[in-house]
Amino acid sequence: MTDESWTVALVRQSDVAFARQVAMKAMTAIGASAIKKTKFVTAVSEIARNAVIYGHGGAITFRVVGIGLHRSVVGECTDRGPGIADMQLALKDGYTTGSGLGLGLSGARRLVDRFDIISSAESGTTVTLESAAR
Ligand SMILES: Nc1ncnc2c1ncn2[C@@H]1O[C@H](COP(=O)(O)OP(=O)(O)OP(=O)(O)O)[C@@H](O)[C@H]1O
Ligand SMILES: [Mg+2]
Q1: How confident is the model over 33-45, as pLDDT tens digits?
Q2: Which of 96, 101, 103 to mutate to test the pocket of ligand 1 (most atoms within 8 A of CB)?
Q3: What's the number of CA atoms in the CB half-sphere (13 Å) around residue 108?
Q4: How many helices (H) and strands (E) does the chain have?
Q5: Does ligand 1 have an atom closer than 6 angstroms to the CB of 109?
Q6: I want to staple 58 with a disulfide (CB 3.0 to 4.6 A). Which of 8, 79, 110, 113 is the partner?
């Protein structure tokens, strides 16, 4: 068991690469399988990239929750950007207001065991991603 947490500031693209590394380290710490690691790191990458591109920067914090075989990694990504006006639309495959493919949110959602998103114009966007070890 651990009460450690790791926070990565997300300001520029290179910070996304660092967030990926920390996500990998956290998944390794819980003994995650290769496939779960890849899925979680990919989801983190998409969400962190959105925080940089659309959220005017933010931060992502990782922590380990649970005990023994039931441990999982939670990543909470927050930004103080403009928020997402139409959440249902934003979560659709192929929807983008930028120059992307519009697959970041929808893809990330499918890659993790828990996906929560809260967004408002006042408070920005918070995405919570959770993955178990297996
Ligand atoms: N943190 C955020 N703050 C504000 N708007 C966001 C945020 N994340 C996503 N969005 C909005 O939701 C849309 C969909 O995001 P998504 O990640 O699915 O696609 P994308 O970033 O446009 O393209 P891709 O991720 O495939 O390169 C974005 O185009 C943007 O309008
Ligand atoms: Mg995206």
Answers
A1: 999 999 999 999 9
A2: 96
A3: 24
A4: 4, 5
A5: no
A6: 79
CA of 47 relative to ligand 2 center, distance in Å: 7
Three-state helix/strand/coil letters over 72-106: EEEEEEEECCCCCCCHHHHCCCCCCCCCCCCCHHH
Name 110's Cβ contacts closer than 8 Å, sequence gap at least 6. none
Ligand nearest to the CA of 94: 1
Walk me through the domains of the chain, giving residue ranges and CATH numbers.
5-132 (3.30.565.10)
Tokens linked to 116: 């929560």
Is ligand 1 within 6 A of the CB of residue 15? no
Place of tokens 């519009």: 102
CA 5-7-9 angle, to 5 degrees, is 180
Q: What's the pTM?
A: 0.97
Scanning the structure block, which residue is given the tokens 């910070």? 15
Give the C-alpha separation, 63 to 76, whole Å: 9
